[in-house]
Amino acid sequence: MAGNEDVIPASVTRDMHQIRELSMTTAPMQSERPEPFELFCSQFRSQRDAIVLLRQLHHMSKAVQRHRGMTMALLAGNTMFEGDFAILQRQVERRLASLEIFAAAGGDLLSERDQQNLHNAWNTISADWQNDDVIDNFELHSHFIEQLHSMMVQLAKKIERPVSAAMVEDHGAELIGSEENYPKIFKQIELLNFIAKQTPEMVEQLARMRGLATYAAAKGECEYYLDRKLRFALQCVRTQHEKLRLQAERMQNILEGALPSVSYIKTYELKLMFLLNTVDMDVLSGAEISSSSHQLFKLATEIIDVYLKVAEDGFDVIAKWHDEDLELWLA
């Protein structure tokens, strides 16, 4: 019996083995979740949500711009837009509802005031629009779009700096290859400015001109108060186009093929010039307008969609770089 005093019962051995296994599985999990990882993941999710919101705002702006143009044509008496307008109206309402939910889930990315302003702006635009003065309707839409674009610029600022770079610069985290990442940081800043500010500005000037020219063509004449606004919009398009053309060439060099669709801007220059000349020589001629309002709207929309496509592809590039930033952090 004395020889068996040091023998550990089988049940105790089994319990000790289980405890050892448990400690081996839980201890590493705790060591793999230090504060820097939690901080990185939190900021990474926030930037991901900002990219989603940027895309939603981009599509919302596109829809509201079309809504403005179609509303103006309908107010001028062109019933050809009625079917498309009814579909677009539902789409805008669904987009706004989705945008509000995304914004609410995104924490402080968009303030409650911004969210409420969007809701109120759309309610004002859509309520009893059939009895609107056309210029009042135009300005209400334009103000709504300005709000959307302002929010896009704000959100773009929040994702200019990759999370990995913020961790190194603000929190002293060590990151392999962080020096090589700096050129991409500057590319990201340039690209965000191009797709969230400069391109939307060009699109909005074109969309304003589209709405005003479509209304005038539907009426068959360009009244004085409309003539002033349309001439100003035409000049803004020409000025903005020249700025964006130069910036597009710069982006081609900076991005080195990462955004192939940016070349479409140059490809569509002839169509843009044709549209501008048509507005200048026909709609603003002072004589009876011969151009069809529907054809003017269609041509302008085709050109606008090219710029919007470039911006959409740009957001895809930003999302891709965002995913690559996670891999850089984990390397």
Q: What does this protein structure show overall?
A:
- Helix content is 79%, strand content 0%.
- The protein has 331 residues and is mainly alpha-helical.
- The chain has one domain (47-164, 179-330).
- The longest helix is centred in the N-terminal third of the chain and has 41 residues, at 35-75.
- It is globular, with a radius of gyration of 28 Å.
List keywords for this structure.
331 residues; mainly alpha; 11 helices; 0% strand; disordered N terminus
What does the secondary structure layout of this molecule look like, with pairings?
Blueprint: H1 10-31, H2 35-75, H3 82-105, H4 112-126, H5 134-158, H6 163-171, H7 182-219, H8 224-255, H9 264-267, H10 269-283, H11 293-330
* SS summary, helix count: 11
Structural class: mainly alpha
Poorly predicted runs = 1-5, 22-31
The H-and-E topology, N to C, reads as HHHHHHHHHHH
Summarize the structure.
By secondary structure, this protein is mainly alpha-helical. 79% of the residues lie in helices and 0% in strands.
